[in-house]
Write a structure and sequence with these properties.
The chain is an alpha/beta fold. The chain has four helices and six strands, in the order E-H-E-H-E-H-E-H-E-E. The chain is globular and about 35 Å long.
Length: about 100
């Protein structure tokens, strides 16, 4: 699971580490799904199977960005938004991930 926190722009210095992530993993998108997070380049390196966008309902910044949601969709990443689903619960059996809600 990769927790991007409030990262807005990914750093090239992390490329080597990102390439070593397991194929089936979860990404918590950076900066509430803002347009400056989860770039094409970053998502191409990370290749998340599942993404969680932690964002408040009716937030004044109109997040998540439709561009970020499209980037995720274009890569076949299943994403879950906390403004729509509430708490997103993900369980792992050590082999894979299951979204519980």
């Amino acid at each position: 699971m990769l927790l991007a926190g409030d990262a807005e722009r990914e750093r090239r210095s992390h490329d080597r580490h990102l390439r070593s992530l397991p194929q089936e993993h979860v990404l918590k998108t950076g900066h509430h799904g803002s347009v400056t997070s989860s770039s094409d380049r970053f998502l191409d390196l990370v290749k998340p199977a599942i993404a969680v966008v932690s964002v408040g309902a009716r937030n004044k910044f109109h997040l998540p960005s439709t561009a970020v949601l499209k980037r995720l969709s274009d890569r076949g990443t299943r994403y879950f938004r906390t403004d729509e689903a509430g708490a997103v619960v993900i369980e792992s059996d050590g082999e894979g991930w299951t979204v519980v809600n």
